[in-house]
Amino acid sequence: MGDRLTIRDHTAKLVVLGVNFVSRLTGRGSGTVIGGRLGLQVSPGLLTSLSRNRSIVLVSGTNGKTTTTSMVVAGWGPGTATNATGANMPAGHVAALSADASPQTVLEVDEAWLPVVLSATRARVVVLLNLSRDQLDRANEVRLMAERWRAALANVGAGSMTVVANANDPLVVYAALGAAQVLWCDVPTTWLADATSCPMCTGVIEFDGSDWRCVCGFHRPEVITTALGDELTIGGVTVGLALAMPGEFNRANAAMALTALGVFGVSPTEAVGRINAVDNVAGRFSLRHWQGHAIRLLLAKNPAGFTAMLSTIPYDDSDVWIAINARIADGRDPSWLYDVGFESLRGHRVFCLGDRRLDLATRLDYAGVDFVVVNDESHLQSGDEPVRLLANYTAFSDWLARSSP
Amino acid sequence: MIRITMIYPELLGTYGDVGNGLVLHQRAVRRGLSASLVSVGPGDEVPASDVYLLGGGEDGPQRLAADLLASSSFGEHVRDGALVVAVCAGLQILGRTFSVEGDDEYAGLGLADVVTRRGTQRSVGELVADVGGRTMVGFENHGGVTTLGEGVAPFGRVRMGRGNDGQADGFRTKNIWATYAHGPVLAMNPWMADLVLEHVSGESVAPLATAADLLYEERCRTLRLSRG
Q1: Structural domains for chain A
Q2: pTM confidence score
């Protein structure tokens, strides 16, 4: 049949497009997931069919998926298909591929769905950013995820796929070693608290700067393709990284995005300009306005993400707003607040928002940080400068929806 | 001086349980009590202490922690009477045996006549238990079913969630308090943190107003509502 869809797949694709069109028209949904779900019911093999004859990049990991996906898309240039923010499971992928036939395709993939999506799409490149504790009430264990990734990557035939992996994260390395071909990236990785115990033998991993090894012989990969310090070098070539977005973690995301594009012959020195220009991704880092307040919206949804985001807050006495929810998409257990070093916010005054503002207030109280519990949001105060608002997943969506550009 | 020691937070601290140490230390020093907070890493000597804190952890790290503690002086200090507050994986390794990752049995520290087997499903959700007439709130996330030996008392009676087996939560001996509740449990339940301080200092502690009081009230109210 070549690249032609079967009648069943074609019908399924029309279902996806039709249902999503109606969903958007009636304002019932963002029009990305419901059609995909129905399409997959009509043809369970739809993701495979729609993936044929494309060059697909999958991006997965605990933090930075959405931003890195956007960076690969921007770096690749116009005519690149991708999924909508948050729609990072097969229904969202099917919706994206039905709507856009571009051969260049970049898909953000939920960690737990990576094995399924990998085998369905036969991706050319898989980017593995990092693995750390997140929503443990749903995902249970980080290590289990590394184990599943490793098995899935080992199932792919040699020569057809390249993995771009973070060499500084032992859990990612453990997973990536399942693959036949890996490009290792030496990028800043601050959260290693989930990798104290070796994924290979459970022994204690010894860290020395960014180097690490275990007595069992499991160690940091030696052949590094991409190195990010003050400068970024990819394959020995220095690349002029100057991102519009803040944070070491975004520089790491960009380095891995450029490495992924290199597999397709896209020159990093040429693509970097387009990636440098990315200034907000689905509202992250964007300047918003709400009831007379100017707000810089920052998404931080787990200990590693929060730790990274706190590092972008300057040492001054500015007010900071933090909104915490514990709904299903956030993980229903906010005990992770104690894994975040909120002590760095001493000197700031923090306004506690969201369903779980008292959990946050308690954490800040014990951290010795000045806090205000905001039960009535009309009492919020801010100065002339935009106030930073750190919010976890559903709280972020809530603030993005209620504010305007 | 109240010596507070956190055991291997790198291995037994997956669910924010490291907060228990912070809470105890803060509630002591804010009352003018002298207290120290020490974290013991894998391979470190386990120092003498008034209270040891063990948290939750993933299967591999839990086994590693059990092995490391078995060859340390931890058991000796506990037999000498130091208080242990243990949560989840920390609870399981104090017993005779525990099973994780399949049905293989691993040796625990044998500090209590308690056995943990792998249950048929994980217990994930709010955990509420009656502890000596007071309500303990927290969040459990584990795959274990814990059976208490003859004469071993549960730490609490389950009112919501599963704990050991749907009836009892954790266990309590003369100097071991063990529960399945994360939260961290001493942050969620300020009264329980103060019971720990009173136990180790041997005297009653003065009232202390913290945001935790509001949090505890709110959790109790919310959980009662959601039970209809």
Answers
A1: 46-276 (3.40.1190.10), 287-402 (3.90.190)
A2: 0.87
